[in-house]
Amino acid sequence: VQLQAFGGGLVQAGGYLRLSCAASGSIFRLNTMGWYRQVPGKQRDLVARIARDGIITNYADSVKGRFTISRDNAKNMVYLQMNSLKPEDTAVYYCNRFPSSVIAAWGQGTEFTVSS
To answer: E strand or H helix at 62, and its extent?
Structure first.
C-alpha cells in the first residue's frame, strides 16, 4: 500500500471524527505530509499539512481551530482529528506529500458525510 486513508463515515454536524492514513516509507520519510479533500466537480484542496518534525503545521482557513493534523513517524501514519464538523466538510479526504512538486500517486481516499 502506498497511500491509504480510512476512518470516514457519517457524522452529525457538530460532531467529530478522526481520519488515519497509512503511507509507505518511501512516501512518508523526510516529507511534509498533507490532508487534502475533494468534492465532486471541484479541485482537490489542501486542508492541513505537517512537517516531518511533527511540530510545524498549517491549516486552511476553513478548518483552522477545528482540525488537528498529527503524524507518527515510527508507524508512517498521518492523522486528522476533526471537531465541530460542518456539512461543508463533507468530501473525500486523501493524504499525500506536500507541496505539489513532490506529490505521489494518489491512493485510496476516505469519504465522510456531515449531516445537518
So the answer is: none
Q: Are the C-beta atoms of residues 25 and 76 closer than 8 Å to each other?
A: yes
Cell numbers for 39: 468534492
- Residue 112, CA distances (Å) to 24, 27, 37 in order: 24, 24, 10
Confidence tier at 1 by pLDDT (50, 70, 90): low
Encode pLDDT of 48-65 as tens digits. 999 999 999 999 999 999
Q: What does 5-60 look like in DSSP terms, one character per residue?
A: EE---EEETT--EEEEEEE-HHHHTT-EEEEEEE-TTS--EEEEEE-TTS--EEE-
pLDDT in tens, 82-92: 999 999 999 99
Question: 29: how many CB neighbours lie within 10 A of its CB?
Answer: 11
Q: How far, in Å, CA of 65 to CA of 67, rounded?
A: 6
